[in-house]
Design a protein that fits this description.
Length: about 170
């Protein structure tokens, strides 16, 4: 409740993001947006964790740039670095759902996902009114990130796998 921002978003202004932010504003939810194309403009990378930690709700939109799927241009939903950065900074993450996200976090226990503006607005209103529940989810997300999703943890398992593969290759020759 002592956060500087009720709701924040850090990322470029493109795709459906401006529309969603405008629709939330029409519903009475102000989103403080930072990044290329937003009125607040870009920010230093060192300021990002502070904004996430000083926001009651940090948003993540999982959309990607346009991609070809067969003969059709479309956007996909991705698990992005922001999904790990917000909980890693101690923030409460509400993110657009994406395939595979459940491999990293438990929805409604470590993060909260949404599928539509109406769904998002309802969830924001709920968690702004229930700070203890919001803080419990943020803490669980932080714990999960610290235990399983730091660069050190991720790279350690990748390096071990690479060393094992190299050892197997040497042993087979």
């Amino acid at each position: 409740c002592q956060c500087k921002y009720q709701v924040s978003f850090i990322g470029s202004c493109y795709g459906n993001r401006p529309k969603w932010v405008a629709e939330l504003a029409a519903l009475g939810i102000t989103v403080n947006c930072f990044g290329h194309g937003w009125p607040n403009g870009t920010i230093a990378s060192t300021d990002i964790p502070e904004i996430m930690n000083n926001s009651q709700v940090s948003l993540n939109f999982g959309d990607s740039d346009l991609q070809w799927r067969g003969l059709t241009l479309s956007r996909s939903r991705q698990v992005k670095a922001r999904v790990f950065e917000v909980p890693g900074a101690g923030g409460f993450l509400m993110t657009e759902n994406a395939d595979g996200l459940e491999d990293f976090f438990v929805n409604n226990e470590e993060i909260v996902t949404f599928k539509s503006v109406a769904d998002l607005a309802e969830a924001i209103a709920f968690y702004l009114q229930h700070p203890a529940q919001r803080d419990r989810i943020a803490d669980a997300g932080f714990q999960r990130t610290a235990e399983q999703h730091t660069y050190e943890v991720r790279f350690s398992s990748m390096l071990s796998a690479a060393q094992e593969a190299k050892k197997s290759e040497v042993d087979s020759h």
